[in-house]
Amino acid sequence: MDEIANELRRFLLAEFLPGESAANLRDDTPLRTGGILDSVSTLKFVAFVEQRFGIEIEAHETGVRDFDCIADVAALVQRKRGR
Amino acid sequence: MVGAVDASVTVADAARAQRCRLEPRRYVVLLLELALLLAAFRSFKLHELIGETFFAVSAIAAVAFALHYWLPLRLKEPAFIAISIGALPFLVGPTVALLLLAVALAIFAIGRAEGSNAMRAGGLLLIGAACVAGRVGALPWLPEELWPLLGSVFLFRLPIWAYDRAHLRGRPSLREYLTYFFMLPNWGCLLFPVVDFQTQRKSFLARDQNEVAQTGIAWMARGLLQLVIYTWLYNAREWFPDPLLIDDPLALLLCLARVYLLYLRLSGTFHFVIGLMHLFGYDLPETHRRWLLSSSLTDFWRRINLYWKDFMVKLVWFPAYFRWRKQGERRAQLAATALVFVATWFLHAAQTFLATGTFLWRATDAVFWAILGVLVLVNLAFELRPGAAARAAARPAWSRALRVAATLLLLMVLWSMWNAPTFAEWFDLLTWWKVGG
């Protein structure tokens, strides 16, 4: 789980928060409701998650429940890989 | 998981219980700040334009907060529901309150009923059809005030709830349902932000209750300031040129700026009502993000009325994109964006129908959404080109400032068209030299 979260953090920092310290992007930092990801960048993030972890995300899984912070996305990835 | 009992809920509740920290000193400061805000609301006479009910709801919320603060976690949401439902008969009348409650319970029963999603959708559509019939006067024995209230509570939030209901495991609980549809601030503000169900659930005591309340009060103060400016703009007609007597470009610019800034009413009330929700522990996100500083039309769409944008993204943009993405990422995004603007136009018109009884078939309205949609599409197409984000980040400050100014001017012109009763009147305004000043 930690490894997944770290990979997600690395991607988010490189792609959407260049120059930001990794310590400032916590596992529970709100990504969508906090304004870090807009709709287009959420899709980029979805594409990365799908490609990197070999899973398919559905539209309803991009909601605030599963896709608003690193911890939730990591849990979603783990759940989908476990199936 | 929302709507079902599992281990993560217990863990989340334990964390929330810890965030109900009682700090008597901070509590007193919060109450003083609230009292000051309400006093400022009265002294600026905002109730004369924004409404007495809006003020009454704010006052009820402040008093309720004084008690709610001390409640343990298990009582906080039931108390919020009790306050919201208890205040309803005094604010909208007992008959309308009872009818609203009856419709809400009928919808809940449909949502919980066994059977397919199609059957539940059919039940909800029947209720929708009854609302349309009522709004056009086919149910004259029901009070007229019921329809705008039903529209405000259910028109946008019900599709969100039904969507989540269809995709979440477990049945929705009555507590979650009532908390979502019976929000006290809604009774004073029928043009209410489209709060997302999942966001509301997740935001509940997401931080320490003192911090959440303080954020809410800060937003209420920001909203109050915007409403003060709005009230001044609305009343200070003599400070601005008469649209019928424009005789130079500066006068036109002032006139356009005033029309655009009247949007502060919506921005201000949204800040205020979401701030009120914070008093009860709902750490909801902001509704507007410095919309006057938009540097492009896509940027504007991402800053103004964020709850509406998120509603469209959740129910239209993402589902359309995911359905079409196999035919090409870029094409799917552009087609989904076009669909969002059609839906936005239609739903705004439907909202007007439930509020006033007349479907908004105004050419200036349809053309406004069409132009905005096309311009956002073009803008998005540019943004999706490889390297566009890096180029945008490398722009010097003067270039960004110029873009903000150009976007502001474009929006002021479009806004004046949107607010004009007819195209002829709008053309007359923009071509003042032909009319003769």
What does this structure look like?
The complex is a heterodimer of chains A (about 80) and B (about 425). Chain A has about 80 residues and is mainly alpha-helical. Helix content of chain A is about 55%, strand content about 0%. Chain A contains four helices and no strands. With about 425 residues, chain B is mainly alpha-helical. The model of chain B is unreliable at about 1-5 (pLDDT under 50). Chain B has helices spanning about 5-20, 25-45, 45-50, 50-70, 75-90, 95-110, 115-135, 145-155, 155-165, 175-180, 195-205, 210-235, 250-260, 265-280, 295-300, 305-325, 330-355, 365-385, 390-395, 395-420, 425-430, 430-435. Chains A and B meet through helix 2 of A and helix 9, helix 11 and helix 16 of B.
Secondary-structure map:
The complex is a heterodimer of chains A (83) and B (437).
Chain A: H1 2-16, H2 39-53, H3 64-67, H4 70-82
Chain B: H1 7-18, H2 24-43, H3 47-50, H4 52-68, H5 73-92, H6 94-112, H7 117-135, H8 146-154, H9 157-167, H10 174-181, H11 197-203, H12 209-235, H13 249-261, H14 264-278, H15 297-301, H16 306-324, H17 329-356, H18 363-383, H19 388-393, H20 397-419, H21 423-430, H22 432-435
Helix pairs in contact in B: 2-4, 2-12, 4-5, 5-6, 6-7, 8-17, 12-14, 13-20, 16-17, 17-18, 18-20
- Compressed to H and E, one letter per element, the order of chain A equals HHHH
Question: Could you tell me the number of beta strands of chain A?
Answer: 0
Unreliable stretches of chain B: 1-6
Calculate the terminal CA-CA distance of chain B, rounded to whole Å: 63 Å
| Structural class category of chain B | mainly alpha
| Backbone CA Rg of chain A | 12 Å
Helix content, binned percent of chain B: over 70%
